[in-house]
Amino acid sequence: MHTRVIPREPVLDAGGPAAASALRELQALARAERLWALPLPAELGGGGLPFSAYAQLAEAEGASDHGPAALGSAPLLDVTMLARHAGSRVRETYLEPLVAGRIRTCYAMTEADAPGTDPFLTRTRADRETDGSRRITGRKWFTSGAATADLVTVLARTGAAPGDREGLSLVLVPTGSPGFRIVRELPVLGAAGQYEIELDGVVVPGDHLIGEEGGALAVAGERLALGRTLRSLRWLGQAQRAFDLMCERAATRSGSRGPLADHQLVQQHVFDALLALRSTRPLVHEAVALIAAGQDARTEVGLAKVAAARLLQQVTDSAIQVHGAAGLGPDTPLPALFRGGRTARILDGPDELHITSVARRTLRAYGPRPVTPG
Length: 374
Fold this sequence. Notes:
Layout: H1 9-14, H2 16-32, H3 51-61, H4 67-71, H5 76-85, H6 88-100, E1 105-108, E2 125-128, E3 134-144, E4 151-157, E5 168-174, E6 180-185, E7 194-204, E8 209-210, H7 216-252, E9 254-255, E10 258-259, H8 264-292, H9 298-323, H10 334-344, H11 351-364
Parallel strand pairs: 1-4
Antiparallel strand pairs: 2-3, 3-7, 4-5, 5-8, 6-7, 9-10
Helix pairs in contact: 3-7, 5-6, 5-7, 7-8, 7-9, 7-10, 8-9, 9-10, 9-11
């Protein structure tokens, strides 16, 4: 990551043919050095590491937004979802090229009028045709990587009406299908990569339903638990990177009043950031352990996600403050890391969602208990 991927970030961030070429070179190096797709199934060409073992590496891999793609772990969520819940034809057609990096996937859940925190408002429909296929109509937005994806998993209604808790399903859609189009790019605080998409009567085979009809929320919940924990690990890696930059700046920069490291207010930034790092890391790995064991991790994932998002924003903000004007410019990754920290507090559910969910779940254990007769 530090000798090969991070030095190529300026090219990768710029996008275009040069970025695509640089990414292919990094992926080839990862394969040659036996670092390719470490957490993906060995029988499909991955490294076969269990999640508990991969979590020890995910921080380092996530220090750059380009790390997962360069090292082949980016499709972990989709590979896990398809391996567990897709039919045999979908698994046989897509899993091996997905692990090999020959195709890409994305995930479309939220709509302009149906936020991800309230999926029951979903209006996109996947109606059954007489031959068993599905005709999909609707719009999704903030779909990461849609412009370069070969497949998109779409949350859609296969029954009931918007607002109902039933009738939501997941459908796998090839993006080359007639009726699929990119409506526009949606820059996030100036950063590219998010898109609004339209599905105008897109028809897919009936066996492209992921999981049972009407069972989207169970599959999505499983995916979200893993995804939130994975993001938290990567945010830890980015926060550690910002912390290292801050400490290097403090230790090497001097002014008329001496080294920055001797200033008590700079020392306060270092202390607070180190405390946040040391406090957050155990929370995240507690969630990792529960997910790896197949246990209920909703409380731990909620705590980890909120803590890691706040951590990244806090540490990066301190690093920018210690750098001064240099921290606002293009010569360090701090502006991008800060943007990621602010975005993290909304991605995969805003802080408020996790705070209320965890608090309610915790308080239920303290509520009135049934009285046993006699």
